[in-house]
From TrEMBL:
InterPro entries: Redoxin, Thioredoxin-like_sf, Thioredoxin_CS, Thioredoxin_domain, Thioredoxin_ResA/DsbE_sf
Identification of the protein by name: TlpA disulfide reductase family protein
Keywords assigned: Cytochrome c-type biogenesis, Disulfide bond, Membrane, Redox-active center, Signal-anchor, Transmembrane, Transmembrane helix
Signal sequence, start to end: none
UniProt xrefs under PROSITE patterns: THIOREDOXIN_1 (PS00194), THIOREDOXIN_2 (PS51352)
Gene3D superfamilies: Glutaredoxin
Transmembrane segments: 14-33
Location in the cell: Cell envelope
Pfam families for the chain: Redoxin
Length: 214
């Protein structure tokens, strides 16, 4: 029996080693290759809680926000905000449609706002159903808004406008407080850039711009 030449044996061994190396490389590539869509996705982080409980809302004692079924018009059309009383979404223009409104833009850290808010509550009581008076907290900290209103003993319907969309929509400057007087059709009658100094100041301004006597 003839033996295999040494050169041929060396070539065969080299080929087998090359094949073994190729198999190892392929196996490693398969191990690290990104998986397709068949595997389940990693679990998502839970949403961040707002920090406002039902008890906090109840303690503030705020009335529910106005609601409406008509399509809202004017610069506030399409703006949805959260109601401070219960956290529900409010279509602002639709909620205010059909009646004159006074929107008071404020924040918990604003000292002139704190002086003005009790006057607004007294005005709302005087005016009754002739006009909607709605506070608009123009800061994302809802818990501090509720705490501030509770401390002032102000119980007006209010909404949270965390990113100041209302101010932007009506073209108001970046100061507080601001009162926006809206006609029944949703158009802006006046943007009042000051703090009212009393109930009569509010009543006279509203009567002059909106024709609502109180």
């Amino acid at each position: 029996m003839s033996s295999e030449p040494s050169g041929r044996r060396s070539a065969g061994n080299a080929w087998r080693w090359a094949l073994a190396g190729l198999i190892v490389v392929v196996a490693l590539a398969v191990a690290v290759w990104p998986r397709g869509g068949d595997e389940p996705e990693a679990p998502q982080s839970p949403p961040v809680a707002s920090g406002v409980s039902d008890d906090m809302r109840a303690a503030a004692g705020l009335p529910d926000c106005p609601t409406g079924t008509a399509n809202g018009n004017g610069p506030l059309a399409g703006i949805t905000v959260g109601c401070l009383a219960n956290g529900r979404s409010v279509d602002l223009a639709a909620a205010l449609a059909g009646k004159p409104a006074l929107l008071n833009l404020w924040a918990y850290w604003c000292a002139p706002c704190a002086q003005e808010l009790p006057y607004l509550q007294q005005y709302a009581q005087r005016a009754g159903n002739a006009i909607t008076v709605l506070t608009v907290h123009s800061d994302p900290d809802e818990a501090k808004a509720l705490s501030r209103l509770r401390g002032l003993d102000v119980r007006l319907p209010g909404v949270l406008d965390a990113d100041a969309r209302v101010r932007t929509a009506v073209g108001a400057p970046a100061v507080l407080p601001i009162s926006v007087l809206l006609r029944a059709d949703g158009s802006v009658a006046e943007v009042v850039v000051k703090a009212f100094d009393g109930v009569d100041d509010i009543a006279n301004t509203v009567a002059g711009k909106l024709g609502v006597a109180a």
